Amino acid sequence: MNALKTWFDGRSLRERRLLLVMAALAAVTLVWGAIILPVRNGLSSSRERYTDAVIRLGTAQAGLSQVKSLQRRATPLSAPLADIVRARADAAGFTLASLDVEAPGRIRVAIATARAGALMQWIAALEGEGVLVDALSVSGNGAGSVTATMTLRARGG
C-alpha cells in the first residue's frame, strides 16, 4: 500500500486528478454493472411474472364464475331424458336413427345425417339445459354432413 501511495504522490497534480476521476468512473461502472443492472432486471422480470399471474388469476376466476353460474342454473329435468332429447332433436330438425335408454338418466342416441355446425350447436344447447355428453363419436358422410353417436346423461345423474 505504501508503494502505491508513493507512486501516486510522485504524479503531478493533473495526473492525480485524472487518476481519481478514472477510479471514480471505474467504481460507478462496477456498481452499475454488478449491482444496479442485475437488480433492475430482476425487478422487471418479477413485474412481468406478476402481470402474467394476475392475468391467469383473472381468467381462472372468470371460468370459475361461469362454472358456478352453470351449477346454479342446473335444475332437475322437467321430463324424462329420452323425451327431452327427442323433443329437442325434432325442434332442431334432426331425425334420430335410434334412441336407447341405457339406465335411468342415461341414453344412447344415433343421428344418421346432420350438418356438423348445427349438431354442435344442438349439443351445446342440450348441455345448457342440464343434459351432459358422456361420449360422442362423429364421422363425416362426405356430402357435407356427419353421422353421430352419443351417450347422454342428465346432470347429477
In round numbers, the mean pLDDT is 88
- State the strand order across the main sheet: 1-2-4-3
> How many distinct beta strands?
4
Portion of residues in beta strands equals: 15-25%
The helix count comes to: 4
List the helices and strands and how they pair.
Blueprint: H1 2-9, H2 13-73, H3 81-92, E1 96-103, E2 106-114, H4 116-128, E3 131-140, E4 146-154
Antiparallel strand pairs: 1-2, 2-4, 3-4
Could you give a short description of this structure?
By secondary structure, this protein is an alpha+beta fold. The chain has helices at 2-9, 13-73, 81-92, 116-128; strands at 96-103, 106-114, 131-140, 146-154.
Q: What features would you describe in this structure?
A:
This protein has 157 residues and is an alpha+beta fold. It contains 4 helices and 4 strands, in the order H-H-H-E-E-H-E-E. The chain has a 4-stranded antiparallel beta sheet, covered by helices on one side. Strand 1 (96-103) and strand 2 (106-114) form a beta hairpin. The longest helix has 61 residues, at 13-73. The relative contact order is 0.10. The mean pLDDT is 88.
Give keywords.
157 residues, alpha+beta, four-stranded antiparallel beta sheet, 4 helices, 4 strands, 60% helix
